[in-house]
Description:
Protein name: C_GCAxxG_C_C family protein
Largest sheet: none
Pfam families: C_GCAxxG_C_C (PF09719)
Order of helices and strands: HHHHHHH
Number of helices: 7
InterPro entries: CGCAxxGCC_motif
Organism: Clostridium drakei
Amino acid sequence: MDxxxxxxxxxxxxxxxxxxxxxxRQGLNCSECVYRSILDLxxxxxxxxxxxxxxxxxxxxxxxxxxxxxxxxxxxxxxxxKGRKNPFEKETPAERAQExxxxxxxxxxxxxxxxxxxxxxxxxxxxxxxxxxxxxxRKKNCQQIIGYCTSLVAKYAVEINKK
Length: 163
């Protein structure tokens, strides 16, 4: 990848992060922020109403503080770009299973990148060092995680769209 492509990817990542962080300030939950940002940038033909798919993932899935909502929102968002549009396009279950190997790769890479960066994907573990869940410090931390996850989806979207 040449220097210009790197700068282009960095610019897209920065824009995606900024959009997502702004949505958090407007009251969207973590998963909704990531999904809506990617919808804005890459999926203008998808109905904005599809944001409802992301709502339940906020706060670590239904505010249970399990898997981080920004992470699940990132998976959902990348799925809108790389996911199978018609799994039944392949004729046999074996062909469908084989197709998934190619589909899963960018998801696994993105998740591994997030986990390597933070050391965990669990909301409770990500937010614990910041005190009370309602604290300003925890919200700032979540806003940073939301931005980072959104920027990674943008990075992988650029890579997928090059193919």
